[in-house]
Design goal:
By secondary structure, the chain is of the alpha/beta class. It folds into two domains: 261 residues, Type I PLP-dependent aspartate aminotransferase-like (Major domain) (Aspartate Aminotransferase, domain 2); 144 residues, Aspartate Aminotransferase, domain 1 (Alpha-Beta Complex). Bound molecules: pyridoxal-5'-phosphate.
């Protein structure tokens, strides 16, 4: 499709919106301008293709489609069936999975679907069996009480938050932390790497129903073959949440022991991070869990979003093309170039480097908290986010880390030379920023001092770096 047609499509869409609420059209246009100008290093963000974006803005949004392909609770779903089946087929082929459920609205929702599927499949509860056999009327008060108790006290073992795990793996701010009795495994304090012997030990002691692998801030590969062996040794269901690195799996950068799909009982993901699709989620599994997974809506999900499923089908079709494998490899090459550039300039990196799409800088080496570093970089046109480092002394709010990722800039076409230049800009800002003081003169974890001339100069250099790589020209 020509660039011209894409541009015309977006311009026309904006004009139509402008006719109703011009402030929304302005905000949409301003968002594109912001995204064009900033050096986007947020590890969980990307730029979806025009085809993916355009597939979302249409009449599918008007359609109710509870149920699954061919078995809907609403009439007239034949076209929704077409796009949902296509998205699922592309997902199965791309990841080599026997079953794909493409309805989850987000990564959190995909995890809820998976948790419910595992509970329903694994927990020995006569009351649950009755409920599932649609004999709900036969359930007594005592049955319901037993059912809630049995389902509500299961064990989950996942990666700790400060080692890079995710809230949805059993932590308090998410329902998973209230549903499950959770314990976590961390990383080796000396190397920053997962210590599989310690994971095995924790599994033997804790005997979880679910062993979860997956992360949002761990800069290394995970050996899913070993994790599966650990799960098997204690009879746990092995779940992998590949939300962050699905694009690297799709692009065959993570293969063999590092490809979660052949090793896990169930895999969840987002579709909008390194996979470069629309905002959404997805579940992959084998035949054993497929029926339970397909009950996601209405068990834990609201009605499907057919317009987003259409966009998932488009993005997954894109990810099956040979150039996506090239893209995935460039994401990792860029992350390594960025890490090398930072290390050469004296930065401290968690685990000393990366073998995926993200780099975690320990900014305590610059005398800063993550919050100070994040804001100073933002002032300089560099968009990152603060993140805990293992055993973080500054807690989850201020933190001591900056997480940076390369999927978005790689989509724009930046390469190793630009990554080195980016490392220089990041180092300059962090090096020139000093901690500020609070009203009482005490050291502040939030306030910082950065010469505005430095911020402006770096911002200009960041913009220049992007000029040769226009976004949606
Ligand atoms: C981003 C992320 C999620 C949540 O995805 P949402 O689409 O924001 O709900 C879940 N798990 C992991 C590991 C993630 O990185």
């Amino acid at each position: 499709m020509s660039r011209n047609a894409e541009s015309t499509a977006f311009r026309s869409a904006l004009e139509v919106v402008r006719g109703v609420e011009p402030r929304v059209a302005d905000a949409i246009a301003a968002e594109l301008a912001d995204q064009r100008e900033s050096l986007k290093l947020i590890a969980s963000e990307n730029y979806a293709s025009p085809a993916t974006l355009l597939a979302m803005g249409n009449w599918f949004s008007d359609k109710y489609a509870e149920g699954t392909v061919g078995r809907r609770f609403y009439a007239g779903c034949q076209n929704v069936d077409t796009v949902e089946a296509l998205a699922a087929e592309h997902a199965r082929e791309l990841f080599g999975a026997s079953h794909a459920y493409v309805q989850p609205h987000s990564g959190i929702d995909a995890n809820l679907v998976a948790f419910w599927a595992i509970l329903a499949d694994r927990v020995e509860s006569p009351a649950l069996r009755k409920a599932q056999a649609r004999q709900v009327n036969d359930l007594t008060e005592a049955d319901w009480f037993a059912l809630r108790r049995e389902l509500g006290n299961q064990r989950m073992l996942g990666m700790s938050l400060d080692a890079g795990g995710h809230l949805t793996h059993g932590f308090r701010p998410n329902i998973s932390g209230k549903m499950f009795d959770q314990r976590s495994y961390g990383t080796d304090p000396a190397t920053g790497l997962i210590d599989y012997d310690r994971v095995a030990e924790a599994a033997r002691e804790f005997k979880p129903l679910i062993l979860v692998a997956g992360y949002s801030a761990y800069p290394r590969k995970v050996n899913f073959r070993i994790m599966r062996e650990i799960a098997d040794s204690v009879g746990a269901t092995f779940m992998v949440d590949m939300a962050h690195f699905a694009g690297l799996v799709a692009g065959k950068v993570f293969t063999g022991d590092f490809d979660p799909v052949p090793h896990a009982h169930i895999v969840t993901t987002t579709t909008h991070k390194s996979l470069r699709g629309p905002r959404g989620g997805m579940v992959l599994c084998g035949p054993e869990l497929a029926d339970q997974v397909d009950r996601g809506c209405p068990m834990v999900l609201g009605g499907p979003l057919p317009h987003v499923m259409a966009a998932k089908a488009v993005a997954l079709a894109e990810a099956r093309r040979p150039d996506f494998a090239d893209y995935a490899q460039r994401i990792v090459d860029n992350a390594q170039a960025l890490a090398d550039g930072l290390l050469r300039r004296g930065a401290t990196l968690v685990t000393g480097g990366t073998d995926n799409h993200l780099v975690l800088i320990d900014v305590s080496g610059y005398g800063l908290t993550g919050r100070q570093a994040e804001q100073a970089l933002l002032d300089s046109g560099i968009v990152t986010n603060r993140n805990s480092v293992p055993q973080d002394p500054n807690g989850a709010w201020y933190t001591s880390g900056i997480r940076i990722g390369t999927p978005a800039l790689t989509t724009r076409g930046l390469g190793a030379a630009e990554m080195d230049a980016t490392a220089e800009l990041i180092h300059t800002v962090l090096n020139q920023t000093t901690p500020g003081t609070g009203p009482d003169g005490a050291p502040s974890k939030a306030k910082y001092v950065l010469d505005p001339a430095v911020a402006e100069s770096v911002g200009k250099q960041a913009a220049d770096l992007l000029t040769p790589f226009p976004l949606y020209p």
